[in-house]
Amino acid sequence: MPSPRLLAPNFEEIDAGLWRPDTWRALPAVQQPDWPDPGELAAVTDYLSGLPPLTAVGEIRALRDDLAQVAEGAAVLLQGGDCAEPLGRAAAEAARGKRGLLAALGERLAESSGRRAVTVGRIAGQFAKPRSAPTEQVGDRLLPVFRGLMVNDPAPTTAARQPDPYRLLSAYYTAKQVIEELAGAGGPLDTSHETLILEYEQALTRFDDESGEWFLRSTHLPWVGDRTRQIGGAHLHFLAGLGNPVAVKIGPDATPEDAVRICALLDPHRLPGRLTLISRMGAGRVADRLPPLVHAVAAAGHRVAWICDPMHGNTVRTGVGLKTRHLDTVVAEATGFVAAVRAGGAEPAGLHLELTAEDVTECVGGPTVPDESRLGRAYHSLCDPRLNPHQAGVVVDAVAEAMRP
Q1: 208 annotated binding-site participant
Q2: Domains of the chain
Q3: Which element (helix H / strand E) includes 227?
Q4: Can you tell me which residues bind phosphoenolpyruvate (predicted)?
Q5: Element at 58 (helix H, strand E)
Q6: Distance CA 74, CA 294 (A)
Q7: 312 labelled as ligand-binding?
Q8: Ligand-binding site membership of 263 (annotated)
Q9: Which of 32, 127, 254, 329 is most buried, with most CB under 10 Å away?
Q10: 3-state SS assignment for residue 100
Q11: What is the enclosing helix (H) or strand (E) of 114?
Q12: Does the annotation place 325 within a ligand binding site?
């Protein structure tokens, strides 16, 4: 049983020497599936814990060094990929296109900003999604909500929406295929995903004898979302003990005190490269809400990298209920973020985008999707709308221009 000090309300006092991959279980964990058979889940995660890790400690350390350069202002971070990845061969087949798109966008961002670009994919693990409610109404039926293919299936039936722990294995083997595909394309892309289903992440956390650190080996850069960043909650506690670089999304409800406490928990030694904060405020709120947070974090001595997710705070529904985002609003938040971070006394460090290399029509804007009537032509996302390559380029170019020295 974890010590009382480890689980004290003042989480700035966590003793890293007492942290273990399973100590999160003593804390409240939100956004978790209601697994129907705990014994079956335990059997699956026990099997997972014996499988080879997906990432190497040396790769994780190299990314941590790169992100230190981002935090110091010598490089810029571009993080992007699917909202929710598919399972199976389709994910691997799409990997090369995503890698190529991120590389091209990174070059554009580097050239215009005058900084080296560090690119990280939302890839090889983005299989689970937090949701605003545990159920949804589909016609005359109330069904469990779709939580990503790691958990259940989007088909609107009770059986399909039942959480299935064997999907954790499908997620692992899909991620393995994706990483192998990326390696065959001329060098692996650093990977990232939201740390959401904690049983999966615990099973892939391994101790490194050389450094004496625990590393999450399902990915290079794990992050916690705005819905699961509770001080005293399981998700932040899980990140706190890892040797990986880590990230947290910060939404419009966060206070300066919240931001400083998150930094104290995850970056107690104030090491550049350890912590990235991902702002997702919404275009209409970034100018007012973000500068006080940036100022408070800097005043507390934390040299974090601030990047912008201009997608999640700007999701709207069409008249027929389809989720979308408008390109001009996404650009407005992204460029407003640059000004807001500088107003808070720091330097903006990059972008976090939901995008795809496919010519989808999920967000409004640009020549192929001039209005909402064009959204149905190629709307393929499993969850939230993604930028197509042209739209992603517009956002990157606008931010690069705003970030010019």
Answers
A1: no
A2: 52-128+167-402 (3.20.20.70)
A3: none
A4: 122, 249, 280
A5: helix 57-71
A6: 19
A7: yes
A8: no
A9: 127
A10: helix
A11: none
A12: no
With b for 16 or more beta-carbon neighbours within 10 A and e for fewer, the 206-215 pattern comes to beeeeeebbb
Q: What angle do CA 203, 185, 392 make, to 5 degrees?
A: 85
Mean pLDDT by 10 residues, the chain (405 residues): 39 70 97 96 98 98 98 98 94 93 96 94 97 91 96 96 98 97 86 98 98 97 98 97 98 98 97 98 98 98 98 94 96 98 98 97 97 94 96 97 90
Q: 64 labelled as ligand-binding?
A: no
Q: Which long-range contacts (CB under 8 A, 24 or more apart) does 128-131 make?
A: 128/84, 128/171, 128/194, 128/196, 128/197, 128/200, 129/83, 129/84, 129/194, 129/196, 129/383, 130/31, 130/194, 130/196, 130/225, 130/227, 130/228, 131/31
> What is the token pair recorded at 6?
């480890």
Q: Three-state SS for 97?
A: helix
The token pair at 287 is: 């100018």
Confirm if 265 and 273 have CB atoms less than 8 A apart.
no
Q: What sign does the CA torsion over 367, 371, 372, 373 have?
A: negative
Instruction: Select from 182, 64, 208, 63 the least CA-distant residue to 125.
Output: 182
Q: Taking every pair of C-alpha atoms in the chain, what is the biggest distance, in angstroms?
A: 59
* C-alpha dist (Å) from residue 39 to 35, 43, 165, 198, 203: 10, 6, 10, 16, 15
Tokens for 91, please give them. 């994910």
Residue 280, annotated ligand binder? yes
- Decide: pTM greater than 0.85: yes
Q: Provide the residue type at 172 as one letter.
A: Y
List phi, psi (to 5°) of 65.
Answer: -65, -40
